[in-house]
Amino acid sequence: MAVRAVVVEADGGSRGNPGPAGYGAVVRDRDSGEVLAERSEAIGTNTNNVAEYRGLIAGLEAAAELGASEVEARMDSKLVVEQMSGRWQIKHPGLRPLAAQAAALVDRFDSVRFSWIPRERNKHADALANAAMDAAAGTVVQRVEAEAPRAVAAPDSPARVAAREAAARAATRTGGSDPATVKPSWEPRPSFTATRLILVRHGETEWTVQQRYAGRADVPLSDTGRAQARATAARVAQLAPSVAAVLSSPLSRCTATAEAIAAALGDLPVRRQDDWIECDFGDWDGRTFAEVREGWPGELDAWLASTRVAPPGGESFATVAERTARAVAGLREAYPGETVVVVSHVSPIKLALRDALAAGDDFLHRLYLDAAGISVFDMWPDGGVAVRSVNDTAHLAAR
């Protein structure tokens, strides 16, 4: 029987750093605290940090095998917790593949939260890790049965399966705000009850042409970008003659585009909103794609492999997704049945569209957004979403 929410406690260490190393991991039911699985292994001669990452990976693998969808990962390794949370850089090249492997496992769950705990609260995993280190050192110890998950429960009976399905159907009929619980339907919905978001990527800058990472650097619109902003403003005015608000990332390439749109809509005010700012690319900001590939090959591969990995000194896409989702939810609540224009950047717009389409992270690498492109989707009060257009650039071809 799959469990929904679990706690993973993990630890690892070595006798000498590097030295005989091993890890331990425990998976518990979040609500009852029952131990559902134990894992441990001697991993030869290694460092503490490698062993700690291996413990986390083993714990996440066990949680995935149990069918968990929500995980709280608890460790007494500050380094692993901070790196996996995207707050610390992964400087050691030997840890980057392990971090990427852990991040790929994280993406298999609906949610994962990392927490630091003191060693005295991690005694079970610590004991498993110490037994594994003893084994790596050739010390005879009492056998720890940690190779396989403990029995969780017998398979659901047909009656329990039917009851759970009936409960799911009942929850769908309540019309909650979570899009995942909305009953699929092709039936027309009244457009006047939907909040419509018109998402506009800012116009072109010099860095756009030069193919540079443009995160928090305040790069202005080029002459071409200003012309694109005017063309986009005319197109938005055609799409939505009545607009409740124009929002913008605080960076000038967005505010200049937003001001052109606001003027075309009757001199509406432009409201800056920090949640729509571009991803912070850290040390890569202003660098060309080729320069980043040459200077940070390992970091780039890890970043491309997982939305939870941040560029050196920067911000992960997972963090951007959290603030973008918060911003979208706020607009649904603040502007029921109205149209809102948002001028932003590639990363926040892609993430908003990913969520609107209920797509996976691969979507981020398969969608191209042109400068001054327009995307539109509707959100209904019951959580229903309809994407109407993605990266519309017909107005630019007409210039």
From TrEMBL:
Any Pfam family the entry gives: His_Phos_1
An MF annotation (GO) of this entry: nucleic acid binding
CDD domains for the chain: HP_PGM_like, RNase_HI_like
Residue runs in coiled coils: none
Gene3D superfamilies: Phosphoglycerate mutase-like (3.40.50.1240), Ribonuclease H-like superfamily/Ribonuclease H (3.30.420.10)
Active site per UniProt: H202 (tele-phosphohistidine intermediate), E278 (proton donor/acceptor), E278 (proton donor/acceptor)
Binding sites annotated in the UniProt record for substrate: R253
Region feature Disordered, mapped onto this chain: 167-187
Residue ranges of domain RNase H type-1 in the record: 2-142
InterPro entries: His_Pase_superF_clade-1, His_PPase_superfam, PGM_Phosphatase, RNaseH-like_sf, RNaseH/PGlycerate_mutase, RNaseH_domain, RNaseH_sf
GO CC aspect terms: cytoplasm
NCBIfam families per the UniProt record, alphabetical: PRK07238.1 (NF005567)
PANTHER family the record matches: BROAD-SPECIFICITY PHOSPHATASE YOR283W-RELATED (PTHR48100), GLUCOSYL-3-PHOSPHOGLYCERATE PHOSPHATASE (PTHR48100:SF62)
Protein name, as recorded: Probable phosphoglycerate mutase
Protein's organism: Micromonospora coxensis
